[in-house]
Design goal:
The protein has 7 helices and 5 strands; from the N terminus they run H-H-H-H-H-H-H-E-E-E-E-E. A 5-stranded antiparallel beta sheet has the order 4-3-2-1-5, with no helix packed on it. The radius of gyration is 45 Å and the shape is rod-shaped. By secondary structure, the protein is of the alpha+beta class. It starts with a helix and ends with a strand. The chain folds into 2 domains: 207 residues, Arfaptin homology (AH) domain/BAR domain (Substrate Binding Domain Of Dnak, Chain:A, Domain 2, Up-down Bundle), CATH 1.20.1270.60; 63 residues, SH3 Domains (SH3 type barrels, Roll). It comes from Frankliniella occidentalis (Western flower thrips). It holds the Pfam family SH3_9. One of its GO terms (cellular component) is plasma membrane. This is Myc box-dependent-interacting protein 1 isoform X4.
Amino acid sequence: MAESKSTLIARSVQKHAGRAKEKCSRWGVGTQRRVQRLPPMILQNLGKVDRTSDEIFEEHLQNFTRQQNAANRLQKEFNNYIRCVRAVQTASKSLLDSLCEIYESGWTGHDLLYVQAQNIEMLWQDFNHKLGDQVLIPLNTYQSQFPEMRKKVDKRGRKLVDYDSQRHNYQSLQAAAASGTKKRDENKISKARDTLEEAKRTYEMLNSELHDELPALYDSRALFLVTNLQTLFAAEQLFHSETAKVYTELEAVVDKLATECQRGSYTLKKNNSSPKSAIINNMNSSITSAPHSGATTDNLPPGVLYRVKATYKYNREDVDELSFDVGEIVRVVEYDDPEEQEEGWLMGIKEGTGEKGMFPANFTRPL
């Protein structure tokens, strides 16, 4: 009874497929082939016809699918990374262009700032070039293998259905002839056998090629990833190390500007300034190496012009300067070289330690 039901199902499927083929005879070869594959596929899904299985190939196919998904994800994320890098490059250029415009030409390091900004832009361009040519292009080449291989895998699947279909057809003819339900037709059986052999050769050829190509492609994943990541990380390391050097130079430029600002090099002298600024401006305009007005010059050691007391703490910015805390006493002396004297600065020796150096006069008051 079970065999009778299987036979009825197979005949019903073949009957409906025959009608479908008649209706689509004018559609084209590709459509007709797809329709011809429907009966054996349906019967295989119903478990009424044997399906050729290849467990080793299925394992290769699973590995291939995982590898393709990984490559697609890597390509997607790296394309996004390059877009972000280019956006940061644009923002960096805009920022440095603005800094070059607002950094006044009379300030120290103006020309150096411009040169270093150009160096940073060249480093960005070189970095982007390496990411595109040495990382992205090889990644695209690696990823382009998968669509072609997928087409071959799909073709192998279609040829497998054809092979199983012809095998089922040949076995049905032989079974019908053996049971006596139909008259044995040797020509029909011979033609079915030849068609079966041709379908088998086509399938086995594709299957054999994929058994070689899929493992080879899968084994290439580690070497590709190593090469690609080495190139990426080397480009990153070089870019960041070189830009770090440039930013160190820029930091030095700004530090020098800060030192000169502390010395009052860029201070505007105004009468309505704050009390502290008024002290600075008044001292800058009046202090010389001669004794300060109101300073006591009696009973001073030889070479000492007068004495001053620190009203503010000062930390030296250079080796030839003098540091002191509030309340410490400094003896003002002549500069060794008058040409070195700067407006608003005195040369002095700190009492107690004997340290000698330049210091801003507006941080002290005469005694």
